[in-house]
Write a structure and sequence with these properties.
The chain is an alpha+beta fold and 177 residues long. Helix content is 21%, strand content 32%.
Length: 177
């Protein structure tokens, strides 16, 4: 059975309409997605690789992310997605809201957490993730230039770029564009 999601308006309000996740959104309708960025004490950024079974952007790198299910809060959804995709558990209190994004048909809520995780403890979710790695900020920037991330990730990142850079402890002009 497919996941059910709430439909939102452009302002992020629930419309009361609940649909299957694969249902196309109509004009003025949005689905809510969440993502989480992990940074360790060395300043490295945690990334997961999308499974080759994924229909969108298979084999590309990203931060753990997913859809908010019907009736779920963004915070609960991001904690659930992180745990499902990687086996990593954090609490709501550890989350830092980095920002919101909007690129039809998606609204985004993105979070950060400072955390130490050994890659050998990561449990990848079959069909969702197939690899994980820690990268330095310069490596992250190089991966952007090489097109290693799904276009949707880069598009949404633009909306909360300054908060993301502040969270990482990087300069405001560290990411061009």
């Amino acid at each position: 059975m497919e996941e059910k999601i709430d439909v939102y308006d452009q302002s992020g309000n629930v419309t009361g309409k609940i649909v299957e996740k694969s249902t196309p959104m109509g004009e003025g309708e949005y689905r809510l997605a969440v993502g989480i960025w992990l940074q360790d004490s060395r300043g490295k950024i945690f990334l997961t690789k999308r499974s080759m079974e994924k229909s969108y952007a298979p084999g590309m790198w990203e931060n753990p992310a997913g859809h908010v299910q019907a009736g779920e809060t963004p915070e609960h959804a991001v904690l659930r997605e992180l745990r499902e995709e990687t086996g990593i558990s954090v609490t709501k209190e550890q989350l830092t809201l980095l920002g919101a994004s909007c690129a039809w048909p998606y609204l985004g809520r993105d979070y950060g957490v400072h955390l130490e995780v050994d890659l050998k403890d990561v449990v990848l979710q079959k069909g969702e993730t197939c690899d994980a790695r820690w990268v330095s900020f310069p490596e992250f920037v190089q991966m952007i230039k090489e097109g290693a991330f799904p276009p949707s990730l880069i598009e949404h990142l633009k909306d909360y770029k300054l908060a993301f850079l502040h969270f990482l402890g990087e300069e405001q002009d560290a990411l061009e564009g």
